[in-house]
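Q: Please design a sequence for this.
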């Protein structure tokens, strides 16, 4: 039997298990992610849905457009510093990039660069959750994704650009190149990253090449843990808002100097690719052996 003083100090409710105390980033919408990442009370959305900045091309093809075209741009503060967050909404058209949505991201990055050059530092953060270019706007989308790439390269010379891959939709196509261009890339185990998605590979090369329904195989090749283990991502975090925030803080605290971004290390990656036999059956564990992670790419 417990003593009276022990009973008096017993909590009224038992502590919640750690996994229940987590705030899942994967389950958030794009707008919720931007709001949750920025400091409390600082969230201010630019070009919000009331601006009705819709794709002019979707309705012509029988698709109902969305008033933000699937991208949320928010200004506020992160850790007390001015920040801009661009978050892609995967629930709208699979997070695909069209003329309007891609241009919103490119302009946000360009404005951040202009602010830096005017002596007003801004921390840029991207939530990348996209299947790549929107097929209904193929050429326009591709053209503006290239502008995102150019804006990233120009901005990362001034300040780290942090990319976050949280959910299972992943990041593919031209936007996977945008992820690669980020100064720091943060992934969860649920994330996926690749030039082509597994469904596209299966469709074009056959199920013998890749069975897209085999989730274990897909994540062993394209999953966030695999990308981190082979040095293609900088931080592997739990699906937890606090863990993501800590990783973003750490990324901004360790900027990369000129020549130390992944996309600038051409010789390193050519050296890694040289011994590979494309006809061989490469597995996730094999790639981890061939491309062991280095602690710091910078």
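A: Design:
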């Amino acid at each position: 039997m417990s003593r009276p003083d022990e009973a008096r100090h017993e909590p009224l409710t038992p502590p919640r298990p750690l996994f229940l105390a987590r705030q899942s980033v994967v389950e958030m919408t794009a707008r919720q992610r931007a709001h949750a990442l920025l400091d409390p009370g600082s969230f201010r959305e630019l070009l919000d849905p009331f601006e009705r900045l819709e794709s002019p091309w979707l309705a012509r093809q029988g698709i109902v457009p969305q008033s933000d075209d699937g991208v949320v741009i928010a200004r506020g503060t992160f850790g007390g510093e001015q920040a801009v967050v661009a978050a892609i909404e995967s629930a709208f058209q699979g997070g695909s990039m069209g003329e309007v949505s891609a241009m919103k991201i490119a302009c946000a990055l360009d404005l951040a660069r202009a602010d830096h050059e005017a002596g007003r530092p801004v921390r840029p953060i991207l939530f990348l959750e996209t299947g790549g270019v929107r097929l209904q706007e193929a050429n326009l989308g591709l053209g503006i994704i290239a502008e995102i790439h150019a804006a990233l390269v120009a901005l990362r010379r001034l300040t780290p650009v942090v990319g976050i891959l949280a959910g299972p939709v992943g990041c593919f196509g031209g936007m996977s190149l945008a992820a690669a261009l980020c100064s720091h890339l943060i992934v969860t185990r649920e994330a996926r990253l690749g030039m082509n998605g597994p469904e596209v590979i299966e469709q074009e090369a056959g199920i013998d090449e890749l069975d897209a329904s085999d989730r274990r195989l897909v994540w062993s090749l394209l999953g966030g843990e695999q990308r981190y283990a082979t040095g293609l991502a900088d931080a592997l975090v739990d699906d937890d808002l606090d863990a993501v925030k800590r990783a973003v803080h750490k990324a901004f605290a360790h900027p990369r100097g000129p020549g130390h971004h992944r996309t600038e290390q051409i010789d390193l990656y050519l050296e890694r690719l040289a011994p590979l036999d494309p006809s061989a059956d490469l597995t996730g564990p094999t790639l981890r052996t061939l491309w062991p992670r280095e602690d710091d790419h910078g």
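Q: Thanks. Anything notable?
A: The first strand starts at residue 44 and ends at 46. The two ends are 59 Å apart (CA to CA).
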